[in-house]
Structure formats: structure tokens, C-alpha cells
């Protein structure tokens, strides 16, 4: 069974087999986690993403899907890019958010990764409520069939950490 750990910190500093990037569909960098990973990882990540755009993802990476690149200068072995959904009050996009976690773990398995660090996908600029984002993340990882031994949720602030801690505790009962 996959062990879930929580870290309050900066995902770009994580030493893991793979870190997950909450990417935008262009794969060419952006704000938040995406911008931080591209800045700290260096030009190798952008070059790999540009190659993906030229080959398989000319129109961009679809929401809920995932793809891996080099980690450049990061301490991780790979970056797994996934595109989370924008939260909507009028449309339930929970399945797309869950798909981000499942697809990232599937890619991690293909890479042979045993440790994977995730951000709280879609809970920043995409507006997903943190409590619900934590619920979907923890339930999806708990239910996933994967060879990943440790999923590390790397959370940027105390509120996110607490939301994930509450969900992990609830899942243990």
C-alpha cells in the first residue's frame, strides 16, 4: 500500500523520483507551481516540453492527462506534468481532478518511480476549494493501483497542510 506523507514546503526542493507539476495545457510554463518548477528546473524542462508540443501534443496537454520530462536542475529524477481542471460552481469536474492524480501515478509507474511529490493540484489560480481538492487527492491516491511506495503531498501553506492532514486522518478511520 502506498504511504502518504505531508510536507509543508517548496515542491521544487523535493528529492523524489518524480515531482508533479500542476501545469497549464501549453506545457510552456506559467504561474504558481508551474512557473516555480520551470524557473528552478532550468531550460532543460522547457526544451523537453517544447519537444512534446512539436511531437504528440501540438494542441497542448488535455486536462486530466499527464506526461513526463526531465527534471533539469531539480533534485528529482523526473517531472510529471498534469493539467488540472479549473473549478466550476456549475459543473462537477471532480473526475478530471482525480484523473490528474491517477494519470500521474500511471506515468510514475512507467518511469519506475517509487517516491512521487504532488502539489495540491488546481487549488491555486484554478480556484478549486482546498478541502475538496484534498479530499479528491487523498481518496484517489488511496484507491490507485500503483507501485509507488510513497506519495508526498508538498503543501505551500499551513491551511493547505491542515486540509490534507484532516483528509489523511479521516481516511484512516
From TrEMBL:
Signal peptide: none annotated. Residues 1-172 form the Macro domain. It comes from Streptomyces virginiae. It holds the Pfam family Macro. InterPro entries: Macro_dom, Macro_dom-like. This is O-acetyl-ADP-ribose deacetylase. CDD domains: Macro_OAADPr_deacetylase (cd02908).
Amino acid at each position: 500500500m502506498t504511504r502518504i506523507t505531508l510536507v509543508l514546503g517548496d515542491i521544487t526542493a523535493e528529492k523524489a523520483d518524480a515531482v508533479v507539476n500542476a501545469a497549464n495545457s501549453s506545457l510552456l510554463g506559467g504561474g504558481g507551481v508551474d512557473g516555480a518548477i520551470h524557473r528552478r528546473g532550468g531550460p532543460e524542462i522547457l526544451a523537453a516540453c517544447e519537444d512534446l508540443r512539436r511531437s504528440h501534443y501540438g494542441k497542448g496537454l488535455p486536462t486530466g492527462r499527464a506526461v513526463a520530462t526531465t527534471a533539469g536542475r531539480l533534485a528529482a529524477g523526473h517531472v510529471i506534468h498534469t493539467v488540472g481542471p479549473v473549478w466550476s460552481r456549475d459543473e462537477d469536474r471532480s473526475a478530471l481532478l482525480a484523473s490528474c492524480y491517477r494519470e500521474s501515478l500511471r506515468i510514475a509507474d512507467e518511469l519506475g518511480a517509487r517516491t512521487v511529490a504532488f502539489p495540491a493540484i488546481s487549488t491555486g489560480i484554478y480556484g478549486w476549494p482546498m478541502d475538496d481538492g484534498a479530499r479528491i487527492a487523498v481518496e484517489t491516491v488511496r484507491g490507485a493501483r500503483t507501485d509507488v511506495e510513497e506519495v508526498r503531498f508538498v503543501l505551500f501553506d499551513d491551511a493547505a497542510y491542515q486540509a490534507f492532514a484532516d483528509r489523511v486522518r479521516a481516511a484512516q478511520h
